[in-house]
């Protein structure tokens, strides 16, 4: 149930940002709802459930930004607007969603789902020591009686 709530919160803010950015290009609301759903599912699975617990906010945010940028650029350029305006709309949408993702990761994923960043356990005692032996220094006599 917690995953469904987290997913719906992520989908809601992604739809809000995508609607505000892509309606400028005369995209229909049904189209925006569909393309947002298609991109949010892998973003949730890859970014929030796999990358965030292992690598933290920064890596998950970069991965989400890359995924959103490439996806929205493909969709906008291929289906809505084949000009530079479409590219900038895609980048603006990706930046806006990534900005909101920071708060989403902090409050929803970290607090509501109790997911924390995976911290590897430190090694036991980090006491390292070098060894010096006779074989390394040829000037030391092997038999001290001579």
Automatic annotation (TrEMBL):
Residues annotated as transmembrane: 7-25, 31-51, 58-80, 86-107
Matches recorded under InterPro entries: DUF2512
Transmembrane helix as UniProt keyword: yes
Superkingdom in the source lineage: Bacteria
Keyword annotations: Membrane, Transmembrane, Transmembrane helix
Pfam families named in the record: DUF2512 (PF10710)
Protein name per UniProt: YndM family protein
Lineage of origin: Bacteria, Bacillati, Bacillota, Bacilli, Bacillales
């Amino acid at each position: 149930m917690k995953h469904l709530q987290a997913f719906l919160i992520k989908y809601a803010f992604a739809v809000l940002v995508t609607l505000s950015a892509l309606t400028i290009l005369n995209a229909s609301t049904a189209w925006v709802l569909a393309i947002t759903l298609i991109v949010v599912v892998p973003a949730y699975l890859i970014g929030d459930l796999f990358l965030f617990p292992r690598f933290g906010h920064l890596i998950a945010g970069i991965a989400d930004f890359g995924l959103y940028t490439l996806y929205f650029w493909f969709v906008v350029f291929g289906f809505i607007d084949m000009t530079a305006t479409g590219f900038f709309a895609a980048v603006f949408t990706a930046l806006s969603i990534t900005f909101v993702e920071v708060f989403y990761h902090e409050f929803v994923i970290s607090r509501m789902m109790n997911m924390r960043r995976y911290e590897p356990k430190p090694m036991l005692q980090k006491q390292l020591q070098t060894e010096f032996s006779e074989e390394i220094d040829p000037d030391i006599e092997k038999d001290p009686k001579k």
